[in-house]
């Protein structure tokens, strides 16, 4: 059950880098939870409905969707698959800071030009993991994500990578995640204990259903520690 919280927390205007625990500590309980999510996604994939592109979103801000997207990309890459993490949150991007990359060009510059996608992709310390940062903040993110050029870019990326993980803005706040979820092979909805509002979660589900998104499951994070359960991330459930 999700707890409702009437007093909304005020967040810093500048997004902070996310925790890359799966990169820093491969033996931690948290990293193992990300591996569990990866395994469940792989089980959801089939020859008839392969999962190559995944949208990661949440109902509201600061629920952990960027942390989930980044760490999930790391564990997929460490399994030997060629992975691209796309920071498609062109409003409040965090990926470039988390991986200490340059953000002078990225998704936004690709969507307004005819440049080859490889010109904007950056390498990471993990051999199988590449990053497409958000690029400079555009005035019209939703329009760019709904453009024909976006379809061309996704087609090229699908050819180059086994898995594409897209970090999107909250789905209730703006329409960006709906647009991309309608094109992606699967969507993961991230929630946070003592943060997620039940009404917002219901609205998020409705919006994703309208977009005909394939919801793979829900990540319930920041689970309170107990004697029986000391992991940070809860179950990945449909």
UniProtKB/TrEMBL annotation:
EC numbers, comma separated: 2.7.10.2
UniProt superkingdom: Bacteria
Pathway stated in the Swiss-Prot or TrEMBL entry: Capsule biogenesis; capsule polysaccharide biosynthesis
Pfam families recorded: AAA_31 (PF13614)
Enzyme class: transferase
Residue stretches making up the AAA domain: 63-189
SUPFAM superfamilies named in the record: P-loop containing nucleoside triphosphate hydrolases
Signal peptide interval: none
Recorded family membership: Belongs to the CpsD/CapB family.
Function text: Involved in the regulation of capsular polysaccharide biosynthesis. Autophosphorylation of CpsD attenuates its activity and reduces the level of encapsulation. May be part of a complex that directs the coordinated polymerization and export to the cell surface of the capsular polysaccharide.
Protein's name according to its UniProt entry: Tyrosine-protein kinase CpsD
């Amino acid at each position: 059950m999700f707890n409702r919280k009437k007093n909304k927390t005020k967040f810093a205007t500048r997004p902070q880098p996310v925790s890359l625990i799966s990169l820093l500590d491969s033996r931690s309980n948290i990293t193992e939870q990300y591996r569990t999510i990866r395994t469940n996604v792989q089980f959801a994939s089939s020859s008839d409905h392969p999962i190559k592109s995944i949208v990661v979103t949440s109902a509201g801000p600061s629920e952990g969707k960027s942390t989930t997207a980044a760490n999930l990309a790391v564990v997929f890459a460490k399994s030997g698959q060629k992975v691209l993490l796309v920071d498609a949150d062109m409003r409040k991007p965090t990926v470039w800071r988390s991986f200490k990359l340059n953000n002078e060009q990225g998704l936004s510059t690709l969507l307004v030009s005819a440049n080859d996608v490889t010109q904007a992709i950056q390498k990471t310390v993990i051999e199988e993991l590449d990053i497409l940062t958000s690029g400079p903040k555009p005035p019209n993110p939703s329009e760019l994500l709904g453009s024909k050029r976006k379809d061309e870019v996704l087609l090229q990326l699908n050819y180059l990578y086994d898995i594409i993980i897209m970090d999107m803005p909250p789905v209730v706040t703006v329409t960006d995640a709906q647009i991309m979820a309608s094109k992606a092979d699967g969507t993961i909805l991230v929630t946070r204990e003592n943060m997620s509002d039940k009404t917002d979660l219901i609205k998020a589900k409705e919006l994703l259903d309208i977009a005909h998104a394939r919801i793979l499951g829900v990540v319930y994070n920041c689970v309170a520690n107990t004697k029986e359960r000391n992991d940070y991330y809860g179950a990945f459930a449909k």
